[in-house]
Amino acid sequence: MGDLLDRCGHPEDAVKSDPDGGAPLAREVWRLAWPAITHMFLVTLMFLVGRAMIGRYSPTALASLQISGTLVWSTYSIFTAFSAGTLAVVARSVGAGDRPAAAQAARSSLLFAALLGVLVTVPLRLANGSLLRLLFPQASDAVLADASAYLHIVLPCLPLAFVEAIAAATLQGAGNTRAPLYVATVGNVVNVVLSYLLIFGRFGFPELGIRGAAVGHAATMSLEGLLLAAVLLSKSSPLTIRARSAGDAAALRRVLRVAGPAFGEKALYHVGFLGFVAIIGLLGTEAMAANQALLSLEAIGFLSADGFGVAAAAVIAQKLGAKRPGDATRAGWLAAGMSVALATTIGVTLALAPRLLMTAFSTDPAVIDLGVKTLYIAAVAQPFMAYATVKGMALRGAGATRTVLLSTFVGALVVRVAATYLFAITLGLGLFGVWLGSTLDWVVRSGLLGAAYARGRWRGVRV
Asked: How many CB atoms lie within 10 A of CB 150?
């Protein structure tokens, strides 16, 4: 009975809920979700096109992205984890009608992001080559050389990527999911054009291979960070952040208090993910290249779920700020249901045309065959991944970041790494075993996060 009340909202919430029923709330979720989903699809497209071009250029270069791409993504994801706190505080303040507090949180978070980006980037840049050899001792010299070349170009632009993440979270928390979409559209065009020209050396440009892909990625991160910062500093910004105020330091402490567990969650996840990648490295260059193609295809489902998660987090935080917990609860279920429906469709598509999809990333028959066999299990994982992603982001939006931390520890660190090693190495299932392990992680996290959301304790979290 308690779970049923949590799903439907407590009776006393009824007067504070949408008077017209669930349809207006569903429209509100969709209004925020579709630009975020489209934004994520553009990010996915950039990812897919980049990987496809590199795969066509060289299997070694594609395999190197298993190392360099993972390190860039892990660093970005861990150190921008406090965007969860930014979104939660900004959206909760906007929902409560306190835009000055939202502006303080946004302004202090942006400054912190820029400083943190510099502090993180400098040691990584200095340790580039030796760090790669330490983390991936089994990788070939050619793969490590390409990975190092990519990082040499991309790492200096990470501070602007950190700014982009916080600026996007701020705008999304304030209810503006369209600006990140428009900026991502511009960035996507820049990335595709630059990468094509510089990877293959077209129209008189030098043929740079993996370095060309790095230039395209670096230019895109920099441009998107600058453009989103400009949107927030403009006169049309939803928040006035140009003038500093005495409450900025307190606002940052509030953001970091919420974000602390989110930072721990991301760190745990990526420690597990690096272990996961290290296991793939034991399987050889062909498995690494095939896995990059599989990750690119999986990203279609993951990033669409991320779009629904952004909407869920923003609406839930705003409704909690407005003292409407019933609507907040329903918004989370609606977003999860929409996301699972879309992910299931994507999974069916992956299962119906695996060879056609793999040939977009490689002409190597061994790489294609490995990917085709594994793509079926990736298709099964799609709805579980979507559900866990949305529920995790919904709980972060409510400020319940400790709950997500616990689920990540169990799923991503314990289950994924142990199950992957068991299936891939001990049982000798290779890359197929790797993806069995990751799928089991998503199943476990779906159960843990769904149960936590249904209990409803997140509605009482103070932000």
From this structure: 28
320-373 pLDDT, tens digit each = 988 999 999 999 999 999 999 999 999 999 999 999 988 888 888 888 998 899
Residue 413 is classified by DSSP as I
State how far the Cα of 453 lies from the Cα of 329, in Å rounded to an integer: 8
The C-alpha atoms of residue 137 and residue 124 are separated, in whole angstroms, by: 18
Looking at residue 80, the DSSP 8-state letter turns out to be T
Cα 380 from Cα 387, distance rounded (Å) = 13
Instruction: List, in order, residues 6 or more apart from 185 with CB less than 8 Å away.
Output: 42
Q: Amino acid identity, residue 45?
A: L
Cα(435)–Cα(424) distance, rounded to whole angstroms?
9
Q: Which backbone phi and psi does 399 adopt, to 5 degrees?
A: 95, 5
Nearest by Cα to 311 from 145, 124, 180, 155: 180
Q: What integer pLDDT is reported at residue 22 of this predicted model?
A: 57
* The pair of three-digit structure tokens given for residue 244, joined into one six-digit string: 């500093």
Q: Which residues contact 271 (CB under 8 A, 6 or more apart)?
A: 413
Which residue carries 């469709």 as its tokens?
Answer: 345
CA Rg value for the chain? 21
Per-residue pLDDT of 245-290, as tens digits, reads 777 888 889 888 888 888 888 888 777 777 777 788 788 888 888 8
Q: Which residues, at least 6 apart from 463, have a Cβ–Cβ distance to it below 8 Å?
A: 88, 89, 92, 254, 258, 317, 320, 398, 399
CA separation for the pair 456, 374 (Å, rounded): 37
User: How is 170-196 classified by DSSP, letter by letter?
Assistant: HHHHTT--HHHHHHHHHHHHHHHHHHH
Distance (Å) of CA 38 to CA 32, 182, 300: 11, 10, 11
Between CA 216 and CA 44 the distance in angstroms is 15
Any residues with CB less than 8 A from the CB of 297 and at least 6 apart, and which? Answer: 48, 350, 357, 375, 378
Question: Which of 52, 80, 43 lies closest to 301, judged by CA?
Answer: 43
- Token pair recorded at residue 133: 């050899």
Residues 6+ apart with CB under 8 A from 189: none
Tens digit of pLDDT for each residue in 183-239? 988 988 898 899 999 999 999 999 999 999 999 989 999 999 999 999 999 888 888
Amino acid, single-letter form, for residue 125? R
Structure token pair of residue 225: 């960070």
The set of residues, in sequence order, having a beta carbon less than 8 Å from that of 30 and lying 6+ positions away, is: 311, 338
